[in-house]
Design brief:
With 422 residues, this protein is mainly alpha-helical. The protein has 2 domains: 2-200 and 279-418, no CATH class; 201-278, Zincin-like (2-Layer Sandwich), CATH 3.30.2010.10. The protein has 16 helices and 4 strands. A 4-stranded mixed β-sheet has the order 1-2-4-3, with helices on both faces. A hairpin with a 6-residue loop joins strand 3 (240-243) and strand 4 (250-254). Helix 9 (207-218) runs parallel beside helix 10 and helix 9 (207-218) packs across helix 13 (320-367). The termini are far apart. The protein binds zinc ion. Zinc ion (ZN) is lined by residues 272, 276, 349, 352.
């Protein structure tokens, strides 16, 4: 119990440090100086305004979430809670898991809702980004929360069944399941969850599409189709992404890209995603995360052995408290794991950025007699500048928040790398 509170305190302190650093050390002086070479003063000011807008709500949300976590620890270990759970479990040993997980998520959603509404809807509306109505946004938030709670419940029911069936060896069995589960979730995200939020349709036939497929072909990818998702139903943020592994790899372009971005920029972004595709980044990402989860399972098992909990007791007690503590730890562990996860992500992004320029050069050199490598670098550079402009990206994030949260290298770093091609 005391240890739980200690972990929560560390979490809260770190959160506070990140908020403090984000407010007082953004913009970072070095990055800002670099950014001023590519962006006008107005653009820099506007992106800072976007970053700062509603910052007090961001701070309040962190405070509220931390308070909710503290409250959870108190409630999970109360007698009243145990009694309610015992009643549920006498009917069915599995039923208490989804009941309490949904309670946990409902409480969490309520704790963050006013602030999420501010940053997700009011702010996006103020900057003309959102295509949703306020009720549309609320419905989306509800949908996301329910899906998250549903996934958490299923995972926990699965863990309970493994612990019940393999009392002595549960940790080995569970560890073996982790990579398979990771791959399964990747597929579920692409083929079940994505269609739940987006309509994806094949890109219309055009010179651009033929060229994109030719770039893929000249780099050894026999892509048949390019998918476009209707991001415009939600916002006018522009983006593209890659997902999947093995035969399920696909690149998706947001429909919002067409129009605001030149064809040469769309070529660059597609080539970037092609880099993720060819390097199998999602597969390696899942495997790295699985290794971390397996290590966590084995450590938890060592701990259980040390405090000498017999398997029988473990099975009987894998109820709402254990389930909630796992959800709870998952929330915290996901936060503490972010720097490592994002460090790997930034490495992947750098590799894809390099690949993107080289892929366009390769393609053009095989298709044309002469091609200046500088052009591919220029196109990628324009893409990054335009992406940052259109999405009001933070051009000069402070070091601590960058280290913790940045999934991509800083914009100016990406732009400068494009200038190496001469
Ligand atoms: Zn990327």
């Amino acid at each position: 119990m005391k240890k739980l509170y200690a972990i929560l305190l560390i979490y809260s302190a770190l959160r506070a440090a990140l908020l403090f650093s984000g407010f007082y050390f953004t913009p970072d002086a070095v990055l800002l100086n670099e950014a001023s070479k590519y962006f006008s003063e107005d653009e820099i000011a506007r992106s800072m305004y976007y970053f700062r807008w509603g910052y007090e709500f961001k701070a309040l949300m962190a405070l509220n979430a931390a308070a909710y976590y503290f409250l959870c620890v108190k409630v999970f270990f109360s007698d009243g809670f145990a009694k309610k759970a015992a009643r549920l479990e006498s009917a069915n040993p599995y039923i208490s898991i989804p009941v309490f997980v949904f309670e946990f998520y409902a409480g969490f959603a309520l704790a963050v809702l006013p602030y999420r509404f501010t940053s997700g809807y009011l702010k996006e509306n103020f900057f003309n980004f959102t295509a949703l109505s306020s009720s549309g946004w609320l419905f989306l938030f509800l949908k996301q929360t329910v899906i998250e709670a549903l996934i958490a419940s299923l995972v926990l029911i699965f863990i309970k069944s493994i612990i019940s069936k393999f009392a002595e060896k549960w940790h080995y069995i569970l560890a073996l399941c982790v990579p398979a589960a990771g791959l399964f979730f990747s597929l579920a995200a692409q083929f079940l969850i994505l269609p739940f939020f987006y309509v994806s349709s094949p890109m219309e036939e055009s010179d651009l599409k033929r060229k994109l497929l030719a770039i893929a072909g000249s780099n050894g990818v026999a892509a048949q189709e390019i998918y476009v998702i209707n991001e415009s139903a939600y916002s006018n943020h522009t983006n593209a992404f890659f997902t999947g592994f093995g035969p399920f790899k696909n690149i998706y372009l947001c429909d919002t890209l067409f129009g605001p971005h030149a064809k040469s920029e769309i070529e660059s972004i597609y080539a970037h995603e092609l880099g993720h595709y060819i390097y199998n980044h999602e597969f390696y990402g899942i495997m790295t995360a699985s290794a971390a989860v397996c290590a966590a399972i084995l450590i938890i098992n060592l701990f259980i052995r040390r405090v000498k909990i017999p398997p029988r007791v473990l099975t009987a007690n894998f109820n709402r408290s254990a389930a909630l503590i796992i959800v709870f730890f998952y929330h915290l562990a996901a936060f503490f794991a972010m720097p490592a996860e994002n460090y790997i992500s930034r490495r992947f992004e750098r590799a894809s950025d390099r690949f993107a320029v080289e892929a366009v050069i390769n393609y053009n050199r095989s298709a044309l007699k002469t091609y200046d490598a500088k052009e591919a670098g220029e196109n990628a550079k324009n893409l990054f500048i335009n992406l940052a402009r259109k999405n009001l990206s933070n051009l000069a994030p402070d070091r601590l928040n960058y280290f913790f949260f940045a999934t991509h290298p800083a914009i100016v770093e990406r732009i400068k790398n494009c200038e190496k091609y001469k």
